[in-house]
Amino acid sequence: MAYEKPLPRINGDNRQFWEGCKNHELKFQKCASCGHVRFPPSLVCPRCLCTDIEWVVSAGAGKVYTYAVYHTAYHDGFREEVPYVVAVVELREGPRLLTNIVGCAPGEVYCEMPVTVVWEDITPDITLPKFAPSG
After folding, report:
1. Does the residue 87 lie in any domain?
2. How far apart are CA 102 and CA 85, in angstroms?
3. Which of 27, 77, 100, 113 has the fewest CB atoms inside 10 Å of its own CB, making it the most exposed?
4. Mean pLDDT over all residues of the chain?
């Protein structure tokens, strides 16, 4: 069955992130000058404007920063999944990532809930990071 939901557009700025996801690794840019770990990827550090970066692998653990429970499918691909949770997860390394919370009922999700990355392999080139309750 064909995947019916929108997929990310891979480009030169985000390719390292999506290649990491394909290998089940959350990869983020880290500033070589001030150490700020950031997402989304960018050419310069938003804190110190340095252009020197390295890519680091996150442990994949964090907490729900904020979330919404969708009871309406705004895209036909999500029709069979309502209600579902869209959340901003704050990772221990600092970046925040817009994602889905899976592995529990929508009514069980709460802010500050500890979560861990889980992977949904969609195509040979696209793997989506989602998060499930941890511990």
Report:
1. yes
2. 8
3. 77
4. 96
Tokens 């999500």 locate to 78
Report the C-alpha gap between 87 and 110 in whole angstroms: 10
Name the one residue in this structure whose structure tokens are 């309502």. 82
Q: What DSSP designation does 52 have? A: -
The total number of structural domains that make up the chain = 1
In a domain, 9, yes or no: no
**What is the pairing mode between strands 114-121 and 84-91?**
unpaired
Tens digit of each residue's pLDDT (9 = 90 or more) over 110-128: 999 999 999 999 999 999 9
Q: Give the C-alpha distances (Å, rounded to integers) separating 77 from 39, 58, 125.
A: 26, 29, 19
Structure tokens that stand for 84 in this block:
């579902």
Of 115, 118, 112, 108, which is closest to residue 135 (Cα–Cα)?
Answer: 115
* Alpha carbons 29 and 53: distance in angstroms, whole number: 6
1 belongs to a structural domain? no
Identify the bridge partners of residue 117 per DSSP, sorted by sequence position. 131
Q: Is the pTM of the predicted complex or chain greater than 0.90? A: yes
